[in-house]
Amino acid sequence: MKRKAQVSKDLVIEATRTSPGIECFYSKGVLQFSGDSYPENAADFFQPLLQWVNNYVRVPHEQTTVEFRLKYFNTSSSRYIFQIMEILHGYQARGNAVKVVWKSQGQDDDMLDTWREIMDELEMPYAVEST
Questions:
Q1: Cβ(22)–Cβ(66) under 8 Å?
Q2: Residue 38 counted as domain residue
Q3: Distance between CA atoms of 52 and 37, rounded to whole angstroms?
Q4: How many domains does the chain have?
Q5: What pTM did the predictor assign?
Q6: Which of 23, 27, 77, 107 could be a cystine partner for 32, CB 3.0 to 4.6 Å?
Q7: What is the pLDDT of residues 65-116, one digit of tens each?
Q8: In contact, 123 and 90? CB cutoff 8 Å
């Protein structure tokens, strides 16, 4: 008998100088990313987040909101962000509501352009909001 994945706890990773703050609230259906993302070992940093997201999408939620307030992310981080968004895109394609927002803080337009490339490749709708 296959057991249903249980993800009932939140995932919170404190931001550092080189890694983003991550706040994933299971019961609220909210995932938030903030700060800079250029961790020394992106695989080690993003692995717990990928695991959390993979488990999260196994259970339907009324609404999932993903907010990005990233000032900078490097190529390694963009690969993991793409993987996370690809999982959420599949979740959305199965009929689950997913709202994605890039919160622009007047930072470098290159980051916003890179973000748009990721989302356009996935053909996933998103909003850009100025803060």
A1: no
A2: yes
A3: 18
A4: 1
A5: 0.88
A6: 23
A7: 999 999 999 999 999 999 999 999 999 999 999 999 999 877 567 888 888 9
A8: no
